[in-house]
Amino acid sequence: MAGSPPPDAWLLDITESPDGRSVVLWTKERTTARVRRTAVEFRPPFFVAGTRSDLDDLLPRLVGRSTVERVRRVVLRPSLFDHRPRTVLEVTPSRNSARRTLARSVDELGGFVRYSLFDVDLSPPQLYHLGHGLFPFAPVVGRGAAIRATEPAETVDYVPPPLRVARLAVTLEGPHRGHLPPKEGRIVAVRLGDATLEGPEEDLLRALIGELARSDPDVLLTEGGDSVDLPWLYRRAAAVGLGPGEFALGREPVAFRPARAARSFETYGRVLFRAATYPLPGRFHLDRENSFLFDDADLAGLIDAARLSRLSLSTVARQSPGTCFTAMEMAEALRRGLHVPWKKNRPESFRRADRLVAADRGGVIFVPPVGVFGPVDEFDFASLFPHIMVRKNLSAETLECRCCPESPLRAPGLGYRSCTREVGVIPRTLEPLLVRRLAYKAAAKDPTLPAEERARLTGRVKMLKWILVTAFGYQGYRNARFGRIECHEAINAYARALIADLVPAAEAAGYRVVHGIVDSLWLAPADPAHPPDPEAFARQVTERTDLPLGYEGRYRWIVFLPAVTHGLGVPNRYYGLYENGEFKLRGVGGRRHDTTGLARRFEGEMLDLFRAAHGPEEFRALLPRALRRADGFAEQVRAGAWPVDELVISHRIGQASDAFVTFTDSVAALRQLETAGASRQPGEVVRYVVLDRASRSYRERVRPEELLEGTERYDPDAYLELLAREAETLLAPFGVERDGLLERWGYGGRRERDPYRSPETVQQSVLDEAATAGGRF
Amino acid sequence: MGRTVPTYRQALEERLKRWDEFARLLTTPEERAAFETLRLGARRYVAQATYVGSPDLLESILLSVLLDLARRLPVDAAARPARR
């Protein structure tokens, strides 16, 4: 890095000390690569605001409590909406772990309305970072508690610390990974980095601790560590009599229980599952299966997010990008000498119902024409909403401010004004992220960079993209700290007006609008023989609107797909071939996680065929061949010749298995798993092959993936239907529909269900079967 | 998710369900097909109707349906307006 001297060390992490009175700084020395632990006494206060008499009332009630170290009156500007400083109470808990409990009891003393609390849910490590100019992975000079960062967290071009990363995987006695783990059992092998440890269990576990000390990794990487490897290691360590003192996977002893229990939760109408988390102080455990962001953005992206948010890498990996963005807003607020409200106490102001109808709308989403089109140019605004927030200074406290009644920044159609004098917390937080993303994106395109460096930049770009996406969503989210619904509405209003302005602009440039979704446009040249220059159009719009419109590429052809219910186009279901030979697919099989191998293979073959088409005419000419290929697939499926591992259907469980009322394929699979000793929580995924969907017996109906032997006979009709659905999805605009296909394929049709048999009868028949089959069960 | 007002799309679908009741007593295939045309017309212009954000749901639906019908009429070249 140009200019700055080499650091003495890197600050890896700050953790809370178990004594409750201090935080622990973990630094890695540059020359020796050794990790040093420094405990620093640190008990940050939180603040309570209220009327003078309410505070006078509270003070004596807190003094002398065992959970309170100190209470005093201080004068400061607690919130974004305070224009002048005021007197508040500064409350220091006696132990950091008592912070929330104490805050809750203060809230309760005020009947949950009289007091507003600040800085309660910032963690002591976060506050230490912010109060000392530090951040995770900061290069530092000095030692112990006297360290100082050599660059600001926002530095764009930085050298990440050299981390030692080791994979950790536990092998259990008996069946292998991917199949069902035993209920009870022993660990027979552990892999750590390049070393594979085997032997009697206690020796093995002790050897693991020895190997950790020897190779001293900073990051433990697992696939499912939160749900399998770590709980098993701790369970077996306890079983052979090892205590936390002897068996520490982190760099200091910690109890053998999770810091956060496993839970199922609902978000956007989907039930998801998150495994328990086991903190390893001084070391990071990243579980690819328990980390949405790690999977997408890689370690480089997580490190970048940790630096900017001041959250520990372990937290960033397991939380949503929204948590990172909130932490960045908090950092910005504290930097301004403000504080962070605990519970947002800013109700929407009352509004007339017709105003609400006018305001509460999303972006422009056209209904696309159904069929194949081409050539078509695609344009996207990069990070449109964040750019609008920055350009129009949209933030909770800058909207309808008192200082700028004549502000020219007014949300189209709504009239909400934004401040012209002071940049809001949200724009201020976002702007560096936008700059950063553009810088990394541009740098990643440099072909002379080593592949490793390019991958690192791409990881950061992806991470930033996620954070920027959530920044908008959080404006309308009730629990968002600095969110405000009017901001959300204003952003949408600007975005809608923008697209409306672009329609005539595109026509003037020689295009006609085929389709548009919020921040993307699909434009067809009015005269295909003389298409307009797309780059020039994008530049012209960017200059005029001060918002970056990018040219994504020209499609040779693009197919917009209809809804099965009414036949009009669906905004986000299409597939097309760019001139550079790449496909773009939205809302068709391959993009979905629950697709079977069969469907994916079929879609692949179809696209391979259509790859030869240079335009809509050639595309249509290929349709008869596409149908013949579909017939070929159907023939094999019907003959029972398809390999079962390509027929596995995935289903995310929405409720506990005993809460299901109807007997479905997934219920059948869940029951079998339960019998085999593996229960699934709501939000987890169950995978199975359909053997006989008319069967009333849960064993005969489906087979869970974990119990597949590979020789099962599947239900051909079930998979013919699936194939027909897939073919219809891709080819519906050309008159191909499911029932016609099924008829053509000689589909047997939905059979009547077998007569209902009670569980006892089923059990008996299973026993009978087992007896005749020579005990196969 | 925490929405106070249904979106235009939601409100439209809700209203179309009521229209289905109307259609149940239609007696000829021609009438049913014509009715289907109205439903499609209403759905074709959701983007435009959302953009207006009119508090009058029926105004937006009728405007959509009328436009869908009008675009099928032969256009008198003299009456064709320049855009904007």
What do you see in this structure?
- The complex is a heterodimer of chains A (777) and B (84).
- Chain A has 777 residues and is α+β, with helices and mostly antiparallel strands.
- Among the domains of chain A are: 1-44 and 123-162; 47-121; 165-319, Nucleotidyltransferase, domain 5; 356-570, B family DNA polymerase, palm domain (Palm domain of DNA polymerase).
- Chain A is 36% helix and 20% strand.
- Chain A contains 22 helices and 26 strands.
- In chain A, strand 11 (187-192) and strand 12 (195-198) form a beta hairpin.
- In chain A, helix 8 (321-335) crosses helix 12 and helix 15 (597-610) packs antiparallel against helix 17 (623-638).
- The longest helix of chain A is centred in the middle third of the chain and has 24 residues, at 485-508.
- Chain A is globular, with a radius of gyration of 30 Å.
- Chain B is an all-alpha fold and 84 residues long.
- In chain B, 63% of the residues lie in helices and 0% in strands.
- In chain B, helix 1 (8-23) packs antiparallel against helix 2 (29-44), helix 2 (29-44) packs across helix 4 and helix 3 (46-52) packs across helix 4 (57-70).
- The longest helix of chain B has 16 residues, at 8-23.
